[in-house]
Amino acid sequence: MNAKTIEMEMSDEQQLELIDWFVRNRLSENDAIIFATTLDAAGQGTSHVAAVKTALYAAVINATINVAVEAAVTSKQTSSLPDEATLPPVTTEVFCRLQVEGTHSWPACDVEGVDFLRHVHRHIFHVEARVVVDHPDRDREFIDLKRELTQHFREMEDIYGCVNFGAKSCEMIGAELIHLFDLSSVTVSEDGENGATVWA
Domain residues for 66? Predict the structure, then answer.
């Protein structure tokens, strides 16, 4: 028994009840609006059942078109995403930042206008350490890296709770950190204002 035979065996009232259920439970709000609009237009000069069927067909066709369009858009968006395997190789670095209260001096300073640097003076040293990693799944954990650096500086603190860098410049501090922690680069600045970046 096919759908046409079932339709012929149903009364007009039964067909209307079935269509009403379908519209309320299976059509989207937009498709239901199309159903109502088409029903109003088709109702001129035809039986109510025929008008309802015409409206239902229009709504179902609209719903089918919408599904097809959405599928096409989704397919296009997916296909436009590059395959990870086809991407060119990249270099990735992880980094951490920390601040260290410390003192240093430049005893041999012979630069006019900044000869005060010969004397011990205090800074908040800003350190940004970077490490090249081989894969994107946290090859080197940057939280651990920061803890290692923090512990290193803590062990260097003097009785005043400051790190005494002696006569080391930002460049020297950076070079030392690169070798101690296998860094790819490190930036050390005085108070976040002036400093140097050192690469391995």
Answer: 3-80
